[in-house]
Amino acid sequence: MRIAVLGTGMVGRAIGTKLIELGHEVRMGSRSADHPGGLEWAAESGANASLGTFADAADFGEVVVNATGGAASLAALRAAGAPALAGKILIDIANPLDFSGESVTLSVVNTDSLGEQIQREFPEARVVKTLNTLNASVMVDPSRVPGDHTLFVCGNDDKAKRTVTDLLVSFGWPSSGIIDLGDISGARSTEMLLPIWLRLLSTFGHSDFNFHIQRAR
Amino acid sequence: MRIAVLGTGMVGRAIGTKLIELGHEVRMGSRSADHPGGLEWAAESGANASLGTFADAADFGEVVVNATGGAASLAALRAAGAPALAGKILIDIANPLDFSGESVTLSVVNTDSLGEQIQREFPEARVVKTLNTLNASVMVDPSRVPGDHTLFVCGNDDKAKRTVTDLLVSFGWPSSGIIDLGDISGARSTEMLLPIWLRLLSTFGHSDFNFHIQRAR
After folding, report:
1. How many CB atoms are closer than 10 A to CB B183?
2. Inter-axis angle of helices B10-21 and B36-44, nearest 10
3. pLDDT tens-digit series, residues A93-152
4. Distance between CA B125 and CA B91 in Å, rounded?
5. CA distance B208 to A105
């Protein structure tokens, strides 16, 4: 599959590399087509990897992954352009973290979410929110954390969620560990996991952990 | 131990009954000393159980449990009175849920929490936030959910947290499943678990589940 990965940070590179390993063609998108980190990633990742602007990448991809920082996501998607996103699955991994204050907070929370903002602004994209509740290295290698643990997906389009779930299974996630939280408003609840994720990061001193939902039935 | 349980709802009754079973003396506190549900609970629970006003109960207890609804908690604690809470461990189980809108939201969130509001208003109480991230029946019987699962505690007073942890262990929680999130500002992160807890309740159709933190080390 041809996949666009918007964002050249840790999340974008981890996802891009995993997709290349799985045989996909990946174009990473950045604000500029000569982003040093993105060029380095493309050079190291072989013939199926390339770098372009957000618009280049979104045009290229049959599926688009938003791996930009939450504060930059809407601008990146606007640069990609609504026509390039229309009808496509848009996997949203971003969290609306605000680092400007004394403690990290969410810039949109409680009555709305970044996932919903994106779906509202790009109504023809099929937004699936997932992978935003864990570290990049665990996203693409769930075995870094022992035992069963959970991924959440949500979005308005059931077929899109099934395709994304298949992709996550190809990453190594057991389908039994993937919980469908329903429509895109579920993004509020998963983005609101970030404060405790950050608190646990600070408590443990590492990010090799994940949420698991234990249930009786 | 003499323990005050403020609140006559499901959480208060579950905690009160468990404490009675464990041999404690429990005075349940309510707005009025003749609350029908509270009187019924006291009548069914034997000689160590009684009902009083919030102030009666707080005066009685060496430890005070806030099991009122989040919207009523500050008023209940004001009725109990700062002098009756001074120096005591105040176990805060409440969540600031707002049921007035289309979906349930948090009335305080992101940059503050109910746990912090309570600690600020009653600076001489030793507030420990815990048990607010799961159903009442699981709080007092963790074996309802199979496997390992997690309780979070936070608060400014380490000795108070140790005493509360001992009490939780007496409820049946393994100490290895209790994670200390540090000071009372951790209450933000646990109260913000409520949106996904409510979403999972609706997804599963039952409340016999709990969060577990899987970790590599």
Report:
1. 14
2. 20
3. 999 999 999 899 999 999 999 999 999 999 999 999 999 999 999 999 999 999 999 999
4. 10
5. 30
> pLDDT exceeding 90 applies to what percent of chain B?
99
Q: What ipTM does the predicted assembly reach? A: 0.96
Residues in Cβ contact with B107 at an 8 Å cutoff, skipping those fewer than 6 apart: B70, B71, B96, B97, B98
Question: How high does pLDDT run on average in chain A?
Answer: 98
Supply B131's token pair.
């048990």
The CATH number for A2-204, chosen from 3.30.450.20, 1.10.155.10, 3.40.50.720, 3.40.50.300, is 3.40.50.720
pTM over 0.95: yes
| B9-36 pLDDT tens trace | 999 999 999 999 999 999 999 999 999 9
| Tokens linked to B202 | 């609706």
Name the minimum distance, in Å, from the CA of A196 to any CA of chain B: 5
Residue A40 contacts B, CB cutoff 8 Å: no
CA distances from B65 to A2, A9, B57, B128, B135 (A): 56, 45, 10, 9, 16
Q: Contact A51/A41 with Cβ under 8 angstroms?
A: yes
Question: What span, in angstroms and rounded, lies between the C-alpha atoms of A136 and B40?
Answer: 53
8 A C-beta contact, residue A169 and residue A144: no
Which DSSP symbol is given to B79?
Answer: H
**Beta-carbon neighbour count of residue A158 at 10 Å?**
11
List Cβ neighbours of B84 (8 Å cut-off, separation of 6 or more): B55, B58, B59, B64
Residue type, A139: M
Contact residues, chain A, for B206 at CB < 8 Å: 216-217
What chain A residue is nearest to B106 in terms of C-alpha separation?
A110
Shortest Cα distance from B136 to chain A (angstroms)? 15
Q: Record the tokens describing residue B43, joined without a space.
A: 């009548």
